[in-house]
Amino acid sequence: MTKKINSISNKFKIIVGFIICLLASSVKAQDKDRSSFFIGYETFEMTMNKFQNFAGEVGYRFGDKNQIRLMIGEVNLTERHLSSKWESAAVDGDNVEGYFRIYELYYDRYFGKRKNFYYGGSIAYVKDEYNHLISDNSLENETATVGFAIGYRKEKLFGLKHLYANISIPFRYYFNDIPETEWGDTTISAHKFVNNFWFFIGYKF
């Protein structure tokens, strides 16, 4: 099972890398002030989970209207985070810890006068794990997803030319979904249509 998961993960990485190289090579010079590579660190999910492991994005914006991004996440999900109704809708109850892995490729298009708001489509590889702390129950699921995102990007953050903030709200469809699962008084919510909230702070080159 582990070999199968690693094989799918590696194939996804290769496909994503190829798509990024293909899109980047086809980009024409447009607006030099907006065209740039960028890299960002995700702060919202990481703060709620004690900065365990890593989540971030890397991408390229070309012109005023278009960008490609690869979001990478390897997050250990704490019991406190999963049991909080304000922070997570994945678990209803206590005594569950988890792990979340994601490689998600976005193609975004900006709109509006200032070109700060955007919408986009996405494909991803996602792995979810949940472990019950007071029993031997555990759950592991991997899937490909398709989805879309809406977001807002603020450049020249705090007046600094290369600093930016990016708020992204993605919505995903799980091809291999997780059914609702009960472990005693705790329920793992069904994972079919899933969304979350990312907040990146980053640097554009």
From TrEMBL:
Keywords: Signal
Organism superkingdom: Bacteria
Signal peptide: 1-29
Protein name (record): DUF3575 domain-containing protein
Organism, scientific name: Maribacter algarum (ex Zhang et al. 2020)
Upper lineage: Bacteria, Pseudomonadati, Bacteroidota, Flavobacteriia, Flavobacteriales
